[in-house]
Amino acid sequence: MNRAGIPIEEYVCSGHSACPGCGALLVLRYVLKVLGKNTIVTSPACCFTAIAGMFPDTCMEVPLLYNAFETTAASASGIEAALKIKGKKDNTHVVAFAGDGGTADIGLQAISGALEDGHNIIYVCYDNEAYMNTGIQSSSLTPMGATTTTNPIGKEAGWKITPKKNMMDILVAHNIKYAATVNPSYPIDFVKKVEKAKATKGFSYIHAYSVCPTGWRYQPELGLEMGRLATETGAFPLYEVENGKYNITYKKKTKNVLEYYKLQGRFRHLSEDFINDVQAYIDQEWQKLILKEECSKK
Amino acid sequence: MKNNQKYSSVEDLPEASVASVSTVYIKTGSWRVYRPEIDKEKCIKCFICWRCCPDISIGIDEEGYPKINYDYCKGCGICSHECPNEAIKMKREGK
Amino acid sequence: MVKKIMTGNLAAAWGAKISRAEVIAAYPITPQTIIVEKLAKFISDGELNAEYLRVESEHSAMAACIATSQTGARTFTATSSQGLALMHEMLHWASGARTPIVMANVNRALAPPWNIWADHTDMMSQRDTGWIQFYAESNQEVLDTIINCYKLCEDRAIQLPAMVGLDAFYLSHTSEIVDIPDQDIADKFLPPYKAFYPLDVEHPLSVGSLAMPHQWYSEFRYKIYKSMEKVIPKLNKIEKEFNKEFGRNYTGSLDLYQVEDAEIILVAVGTVAGTVKDTVDYLRSKGLKVGVIRLRLFRPFPSEELIKALKNASFVGVLDRSFSFGNEGQIFSELKASLYQTNRDPLIKDFIVGIGGRDITTDTVKKIYENCQKCLKNKKIDQEIEWTNIKV
């Protein structure tokens, strides 16, 4: 049964210790709503390790296996293999739930391995764009221009100059069956994409935009507003890739990135010139995405 | 159940840290600085507030209105900001 | 029971097969490759009902093994040297998570310089990871120990992982006659694995959660300590039962050879013990009172058993096939520490042998013995640590 367009059932309970306005929690909550009770989650070192509760407490109403930082995909493929040999895989979903550092940096090799080895798992990256649990250090998914504790503003600039790694393209290059970007500010789109991942026989990847008021320095009530701006400016485009075919699910890129950047403390230091560079980069990536979609139709 | 009541000694413990006590006994409402309040006159029962709550602290009352569970609400204010009819106001706790 | 001529690597694969391992997650490394190739072939031929996980590194191999074991499947892997070193983080995880994984490790030196030959540095470096450590002397022992390890590790009182070391090439690539236990008897001896806290959607648990300093972290570690204390008595019991079912006799943590009346006792690990035993036979034929203790188990360290076995010895020569730089050979250190608790004070000397696969011949052992004899006569050791056969 649905309420406000998403399933009513909850598999994460209250009492968890996520920061007020945490995006990661919404991501997990929506993912589990779609996948349901017959789901096993594995998660590495990340915010969620602290959020879920300390022994003997847990906010999870489905099984959760903690594993080390770089292991998420290997851990998920292990669970999948054991379920298979026990004859339980057909009715159980295996979810890897990791942050951006655990996905795009330290865990990248394991994802590449598990994906190529053809495991039937759903890998969810909640991308809050830095190592938030350890105190806001830059990851390869920290966006262009952001300051973090390892990109501190000093006398000589210091903020992150390079753009985010394109995880979607990396995984598409592995011939992934299904990959999608999602954003809790677009819950209906979010739920639809997780349903597709659920129906996929093989490795699927969900790259989830995940706001972090603590690390990004904005008022927590703006969380979903922030998400809308990220997508409307093209900073976080919403699309999916099904068997190599790109499909942009939100096409109205109507706003300038400045509107998104100006609300967050992590971008406050940026000059107009640098913001223009960011804008140029985002426009270029958006054009590439449109071309990929057009190519997919041919 | 209180967190440290489940086990009283090393003998009671499982071999590994296998957690099974629901966090619902932890009342995170004490973190709150601003308190969301629903104006039922304005509420259109769309449940967008329920949908966007990261603390899963909005339920439903007997009349079918959304109901905030102050035991858990951390006061992030997303519900208030997202309410399409401005039916949720944030008020400072203790005032 | 079928007899076959097979290498140590094949014996390891057979050990996993007879134990009905359900998942094998492994990454190839010389000289371990044949173990995992054979298991992959068993699976593709339908002779073993298991999943083979072709992971992209040893680190992922062990991570996947932990997950499969936690989900409830009997899990096997194999590695060597650099691969074992890469697993290091996950070895701690496997024991902390109390997963009864069994692993064959082909004992090989670490680089640089590159070297694929036998020494024990790889496993000795994993001493503190909470794994039970066996070192085998024969291919038969490799196979049998793997079966016994599952029975030991899956016991509720133990619930720890174990690694079985087999020396590179001396066992891994050398053929011997091996008895393959009957599957029916093995199935009775080793019932199916049942995880105590499986990942089960009907009984959701969060496995491996954070434990705070003031809560239970110390207690979880204490529990591993207590379980390790039970390993040796449990192993003795299991090997008695094994002897009854399969007719082969293993003697727990130590393999004693001619020690009862020995004045000089040499302590060795792995295949070198065979050469030492041969040398002991020769020396005994000359009327010399010498014996050898082979450590089968390095973790838990069999202190009490060693003290007992050394009770009549006046001199102990330790043959370490690895070295802790800045200190001494690992077995030497631990044996000395064990003796400190007793009023026994035999002379004791450390011989570093066979590093990076350097051959240890009966001549090497004879020279070691002669040196021990000389020291004993002088009632004083000439030096505490001697790197044997160094070209000076």
What is the topology, as strand order, of the major beta sheet of chain C? 3-2-4-5-7-6-13
Give, in order, the helices and strands of chain A: EEHEHEEHEHHEHEHEHHEEHH
Low-pLDDT runs of chain A: none
CATH level-4 homologous superfamily of the largest domain in chain C: Thiamin diphosphate (ThDP)-binding fold, Pyr/PP domains
DSSP strand tally of chain C = 16
**How many alpha or pi helices of chain A?**
11
Biggest β-sheet of chain C: count, sense, barrel? 7 strands, mixed
What is the assigned CATH homologous superfamily of chain A?
Thiamin diphosphate (ThDP)-binding fold, Pyr/PP domains
Oligomer: heterotrimer
CATH topology-level name of the largest domain in chain C: Rossmann fold
Shape descriptor of chain C reads: globular
Main β-sheet of chain A: number of strands, strand sense, barrel status? Answer: 8 strands, mixed
Question: What is the level-2 CATH architecture name of chain A?
Answer: 3-Layer(aba) Sandwich
The fraction of residues assigned to DSSP E strands of chain A is 15-25%
Radius of gyration of chain C: 21 Å
Tally of alpha and pi helices of chain C: 12
Task: Note the gap between the termini of chain A.
Answer: 38 Å
What is the domain tally of chain C?
2
Mean pLDDT of chain A: 97
* Structural class by secondary-structure content of chain C: alpha/beta
Which structural category do the helix and sheet elements of chain A fall into? alpha/beta
Notable traits:
heterotrimer; B: 95 residues; mainly beta; Alpha-Beta Plaits; two-stranded antiparallel ribbon; 2 helices; 6 strands; 21% strand; C: alpha/beta; Rossmann fold; 2 domains; seven-stranded mixed beta sheet; 16 strands
Q: What does this molecule look like?
A:
The complex is a heterotrimer of chains A (298), B (95) and C (392). Chain A has 298 residues and is α/β, with parallel strands linked by helices. Helix content of chain A is 37%, strand content 15%. Chain A has one domain (2-297): Rossmann fold (3-Layer(aba) Sandwich), CATH 3.40.50.970. Chain A has eleven helices and eleven strands. In chain A, the strands form two sheets. In chain A, strands 5-3-6-7-9-8-10-11 form an eight-stranded mixed β-sheet, with helices on both faces. In chain A, a hairpin with a 2-residue loop joins strand 1 and strand 2 (6-7). In chain A, helix 1 (23-35) packs across helix 7 and helix 3 (72-85) packs parallel to helix 5. Chain A is globular and about 60 Å long. Chain B is 9% helix and 21% strand. In chain B, strands 3-6 form a two-stranded antiparallel ribbon. Chain B has a two-stranded antiparallel sheet with strand order 4-5. In chain B, a hairpin with a 5-residue loop joins strand 4 and strand 5. Chain B is elongated, with a radius of gyration of 17 Å. The mean pLDDT of chain B is 94. Chain C is α/β, with parallel strands linked by helices. Chain C has two domains: 2-246, Rossmann fold; 256-387, Rossmann fold (3-Layer(aba) Sandwich), CATH 3.40.50.920. Chain C is built from twelve helices and 16 strands. In chain C, strands 3-2-4-5-7-6-13 form a seven-stranded mixed β-sheet, with helices on both faces. Chain C has a six-stranded mixed β-sheet with strand order 10-12-11-14-15-16, with helices on both faces. A two-stranded antiparallel ribbon of chain C has the order 1-8. In chain C, helix 1 (8-18) crosses helix 2, helix 9 (272-285) packs across helix 12 (362-378) and helix 10 crosses helix 11. Chains in contact: A-B, A-C, B-C. The A-C interface holds A 37-40, 42, 49-50, 52-58, 60-68, 70-71, 73-79, 81-86, 92, 109-110, 112-114, 116-117 and C 22-23, 25, 49-51, 53-57, 59-61, 63-73, 75, 89-90, 93, 199-201, 203-212, 215-216.
